[in-house]
From TrEMBL:
GO terms for cellular component: cytoplasm. This is Serotonin N-acetyltransferase. PANTHER family: SEROTONIN N-ACETYLTRANSFERASE. It is an enzyme of class 2 (transferase). One of its GO terms (molecular function) is aralkylamine N-acetyltransferase activity. Its main location: cytoplasm. Pathway: Aromatic compound metabolism; melatonin biosynthesis; melatonin from serotonin: step 1/2. The lineage of its organism: Eukaryota, Metazoa, Chordata, Craniata, Vertebrata. It comes from Aramus guarauna. Keywords: Acyltransferase, Biological rhythms, Cytoplasm, Melatonin biosynthesis, Phosphoprotein, Transferase.
Length: 205
């Protein structure tokens, strides 16, 4: 049984009924809205959204195309994409980390024995911004992490102007992050993640 089949909040969400052909027979259509883990085949679509979202603001991307492929090959189960009618509109990519705080190595490494999920990037396609999609996707991602037996907390680093957004998502600031990218400095934030046994008792995971 796949992980997806056991997690109700990752199953496709059908927001409208399938269309019917003139003869009255239903024809197959893509789900209006679907959440699923990403695959390496999604890497180009991911990078196109990320590049537009970040280069205009910071001049660089958190992950370049080869790094996106790297993480989607190593740990696709720590990613989540939001698709509307088959089109990627928002995504999160994460990997595992095995230390209390993030270091420069966390930008490129996946530590399979780690218990902290390092969220590398969250991005929303430009035509779907200002609709609350980033917050919704983060909520679904955190719900998903709570059903993973090894996940204990989520970590991320962001520029200071994004701290209020992540605080609204339930993250707390840990202080300045030791990681720097060029002249950019970051705040490190974390969110506790309860283990699988708790969620199985309380939410049907």
């Amino acid at each position: 049984m796949s992980m997806l089949s056991t997690l109700p909040f990752l199953k496709p969400v059908h927001l409208r009924s399938p269309r019917s052909s003139p003869g009255g027979q239903r024809r197959h259509t893509l789900p209006a809205s679907e959440f699923r883990c990403l695959s390496p085949e999604d890497a180009v679509s991911v990078f196109e959204i990320e590049r537009e979202a970040f280069i205009s603001v910071s001049g660089d991307c958190p992950l370049h195309l080869d790094e996106i492929r790297h993480f989607l090959n190593l740990c696709p189960e720590l990613s989540l994409g939001w698709f509307e009618e088959g089109r990627l509109v928002a995504f999160i990519i994460g990997s595992l980390w095995d230390q209390d705080r993030l270091s420069q190595a966390a930008l490129t490494l996946h530590k399979p024995r780690g218990t902290a999920v390092h969220i590398h990037v969250l991005a929303v396609h430009r035509t779907f911004r200002q609709q609350g999609k980033g917050s919704i996707l983060m909520w679904r991602y955190l719900q998903y992490l709570r059903c993973l037996p090894f996940a204990r907390r989520a970590l991320l680093m962001c520029e200071e102007f994004l701290v209020p957004f992540y605080q609204k998502c339930g993250f707390e600031a840990l202080g300045p992050c030791e990681v720097t990218v060029g002249e950019l400095a970051f705040i490190e934030m974390q969110h506790p993640v309860r283990g699988h046994a708790f969620m199985r008792r309380n939410s049907g995971c």
